[in-house]
Amino acid sequence: MKQKPFNLISCRFSEAAAPKFNALGRLFPQLYVIAIDAYYHYSVTIRFGISGVPSIYLLHNGRPVAKYNKTEITLDGLAEFIKAFTLIEPYSSSTNESNPSLVVIESDSEGPLVIVIENRTNYLLVFSWIFCLIVVAYYSSRSTFFHKIKDHIRIMWNEAQTVNHEHAE
Questions:
Q1: Burial of 135: CB neighbours in 10 Å, binned 0-12, 13-18, 19+
Q2: What pLDDT sits at residue 6?
Q3: Name one GO cellular component term (predicted).
Q4: How many domains, in total, are found in the chain?
Q5: pTM listed for this prediction
Q6: Are 73 and 16 in contact (CB under 8 A)?
Q7: How confident is the model at residue 153 (pLDDT cuts 50, 70, 90)?
């Protein structure tokens, strides 16, 4: 199976959440743990109303049952979230019993979600900044403050030209 990076261009929040998300598959082997890149699959973001990443949903038959809605994503918080809605206890393969110590192990950082920050240009962001700067420049050029500055510079330029002509003769 080909591993895909778990990120949104350069999302440090997704990078921080990935090992904890990987650990969910280990702690809850009876559940399907799936990650979707919201940047490339925008129809999913529209369908579920995702406004930020990473967003973690608990789905049943393709419909959202609950959304993990905490500021900080922790493994303990994710396990409690799943336990509250499914009544499934986390499983530990090392001791073969329930109620394991909920820790992220080294293999959780290795996959299945690859944690890679992509440094590439976000052209939509660049276009947005250019548009904002053009709008600010346009409305600034129509303001009275801009006209006062322009007139002041023109007067100073004319005075400098007059002084320069007097010295030349």
A1: exposed
A2: 47
A3: cilium
A4: 2
A5: 0.56
A6: yes
A7: very high
Please tell me whether residues 101 and 127 are part of one structural domain.
no
**Domain match, 25 and 78 both:** yes
Q: What is the pLDDT of residue 115?
A: 66
Q: In the predicted model, is pLDDT for residue 130 greater than 50?
A: yes
Report d(CA 151, CA 153) in Å as an integer. Answer: 5
Cα 74 to chain centroid distance, Å, stands at 17
Q: Which of 59, 45, 53, 63 is nearest to 18 (CA)?
A: 53
pLDDT digits (tens, 9 = 90+) for 43-52: 877 887 777 7
Tokens matching residue 120 = 């590439």
Both tokens assigned to 116: 């890679």
Looking at the domain assignment, is residue 6 inside a domain? no
Residues 102 and 142 in one domain: no
Residue range 7-23, pLDDT digits in tens: 444 577 777 788 888 88
Q: Kind and range of the H or E element at 81? A: helix 75-86
Tokens at residue 64, please?
A: 């959202």
Which residue is it, tokens 């400098």?
Answer: 160
| Pair (35, 91) in one structural domain | yes
151 and 80 in one domain? no
What is the domain range of residue 153? 123-168
Containing H/E element for 75? helix 75-86
How far is residue 121 CA from its own chain's centroid?
14
